[in-house]
Amino acid sequence: MTAVLRARGLGRRYGRRWALTDCTLDVPAGHVVGLVGPNGAGKTTLLSLASGQIAPTTGDITVLGETPGSGPAHLAKVGFVAQDTPTYARLSIAEHLRLGARLNPGWDDALARDRIARLGLDPDRRAGRLSGGQRAQLALTLGIAKRPELLILDEPVAALDPLARHEFMQVLMEAAAEQEFSVVLSSHLVSDLERTCDHLVVLVDSRVRLSGDVEGLLAAHHRITGPRRDPDRLAAGQHVVSASHTDRQSTFIIRTDDPIHDPAWTVSQVSLEDLVLAYMSRPAETASAGRPVLEIQR
């Protein structure tokens, strides 16, 4: 696997608080990767490290095989759209595009202007007069038009209404398919990731809990429901991710590579949201050698 982002024992501390701890992770190239976790989990810190805005306290990180922000040539390969989709309120859309052309050696002006036209935006309109969805689309256009090899987005649709989110994600997916760049997208909206991402990373309490190909992760997890039973009485190889009980019934989300033969269990598939919530609510564990609690690659 070719990794577009590789972290080994990565950590970042602010004063006495660790925002990211012992992060060991391989993000594959050529994929749309969803980074999900609760607020305060360390998502923004990880993406800030990956984009070269801050330096690690411990460990190492490489992006596209180099130290993030190591020089102009490397910066030109990485696009970044921050959480508040920053634009300059007093500048027009056209002025944003001219600024993008000046700052980025690989700038594709025709692509930028074509996307602005397809979005129905007036190039003479100031960014401060755009809606939240329009500002997000402008920020995305600036990121795409620099022709990056990797585009990093930190919760770019968190403040948008459902229609604006849908339009933003549609433009992103079209661009990723057309230009064949890798994407790392941070979000706490699992429904958006479910429609767009083929690789998943779950970050909880500043640690990687889950990492892998979405199809493989879903195939390895099941919901089983049956008569009340203690988790330690499950078959060998059935690893409990989450458990709930009533007086007479138990429901588990388990991971296993083995068939489930016990006729007492009703077996059903889990959704991506089920999987994410199960790992987000799971008690903290220490993964050996700093690896994620579960890592699946196919």
From TrEMBL:
Q: Which UniProt keywords apply?
A: ATP-binding, Nucleotide-binding, Transport
Q: Which Gene3D superfamilies match?
A: P-loop containing nucleotide triphosphate hydrolases
PROSITE patterns attached here?
ABC_TRANSPORTER_2
The ABC transporter domain, residue ranges: 5-230
The GO terms describing molecular function are: ATP binding; ATP hydrolysis activity
Q: What is this protein called?
A: ABC-2 type transport system ATP-binding protein
According to its UniProt entry, this protein's organism is Thermomonospora umbrina
